[in-house]
Amino acid sequence: MIWFSVVLILLLIIVYYKWAFSYWRKKGVPCVEPTIPFGNIQALITSQLYVGTHLKNAYLLFKQLGHKHAGMYLLSWPRYLPIDRNIIKHILIQEFDYFNDRGFYYNEKDDPLSANLFSLSGERWRNLRSRLSPVFTSGKLRFMFDSLLRCGYQLQLAMENLSYLKNTIEVRELSICYSINVIGLCAFGVDCNCFENPNSDFRKFGKKVFDYTSWFRRIKMCFAFAMPNLALWLGVEAFGKDYTDFFTNIVQETIDYREKHNVVSKDLIQLLIEIKDNWKKDMSMEELAAQVFIFFSAGFETTSTSLTFCLYELGLNLNIQKKVREEITTTLSKYQNNFTYEAVSNMKYMNQVIEETLRKYPPVAFIGRRCVKDCKIPGTAVILEKDMYIDISILGIHHDPEYYPEPEKFDPERFSEKNKNLRNACTYLPFGDGPRTCIGMRFAITQLKVALVVLLKQHQFTVHSTTTIPVVFEPYSFTLHPKTGIFMTVNKI
User: Fold this and answer.
1) pLDDT along the chain (493 residues), means of 10
2) Binding site for heme, residues?
């Protein structure tokens, strides 16, 4: 009887999967043949393939076959992969109201930090975005530039000390410490100086945010994305109580101290205090903490990996590195060697180098969207139904030879003014596109430029022989970063 029950259950599971896997065929959308029980994500589990690479491979395969779009399956649940640029533009910009939800799981009740600008949708997202947008204007960036510069000099000192002890350094760790210092000082007004205090709580929490090396966390989040309503009912948390307690307490204590002692500081919390005071309906402490948290977590991870990849490519392309260094020297001389916001803003070729780094190594390798109401896909007979999840492969688009010939070549000239003006919409997406473009884009670029100035001005970086070429990506991470260390030889000029 027991064996009969087991066989019956297995047969029912197989029948269910066969029915579920017929979804895209019935819609006339091409798809890779899924397998039970993982659907199209078996390679992520058995081959330890990074999810961004998995989506890139699917994008390039279907693009080569001449398809406008494709269907995929996360376990048994269908997901939509747009290929055609016009469909991607339709989703991100033209019909944004149909796709304003990122489809990112959050649980405001049990995990308040997860309800942030990145994950919210609809009117709540619009209201929050309108409140926070003034925080990230160029004027406010000038307001925080002194703090950025302070972190830059800490990076310079740390790098000089390391290169004095040994001329081979691991730039990933150097980039992590710099990025945490920047976010700690510019968001919280806390000088955590991870170069001198490697056990800082900011570093500990920062490194854990997007770390999915734990099997339990991977399974939990896969379940939450596949069945968000059930996960919400069960109280599944994206981050956890330790994150909530740490960030809520530090925001609360900082605000209480400043209001009591009338302290004004040049950081994100100060700007949020001003916003809170200027709105009739105050933001709750949980809302404030959630926004500071996402600024910390997203800003730390993305900029540290971008700086790492930028130094890596400059270490492989010494002629480009030399050109950047010459621009640094020439530009600073125009400002009497004063390291100012205006001087950094006028380093145009450095901007091209950063943009090419973000093209080749986009920190977030794909964009997620959820269809909030039925929508017909232009140029097809397909109607995406409400609650359908969409995956847009940024890594695939950035390595599409139609848009970027010789995509593996590092070529900053792709981003000269002339070439940028020739580029089609929605073919360069390191910060997304449309109304949900990353709000901290200017800050991230300026942060990277400050680091490059202090590192390259008097030092030459070359990739050490122990560094893996080409880079292998960490498979169990939400963001794109190297699996192994990036070791470089540093010589003083």
Assistant:
1) 73 83 92 83 74 93 95 90 96 93 80 80 82 78 86 88 74 89 82 79 71 65 72 74 79 78 73 64 71 78 92 97 97 91 95 98 93 91 92 97 97 94 92 89 93 94 92 86 91 85
2) 438
CB 403 within 8 A of CB 439: no
31-68 burial: b if 16+ Cβ within 10 Å, else e: bbebeeebbbbebbeeeebbbbbbbbbbbbebbeeeeb
Alpha-helical regions (H) of 199-240? 201-209, 215-226, 228-234
One-letter identity of residue 360: K
Instruction: Find all residues with CB under 8 Å of 10, minimum gap 6, and list them.
Output: none
**Residue 452 and residue 428: Cα distance in Å, rounded?**
22
Cis peptide upstream of residue 470 (ω within 30 degrees of 0): yes
Q: Tokens 């500081």 belong to which residue?
A: 265
Strand 383-384 and strand 375-376: the pairing is antiparallel
- Determine the Cα–Cα distance for residues 337 and 343; give it in Å rounded to an integer: 9
Binding residues: 438
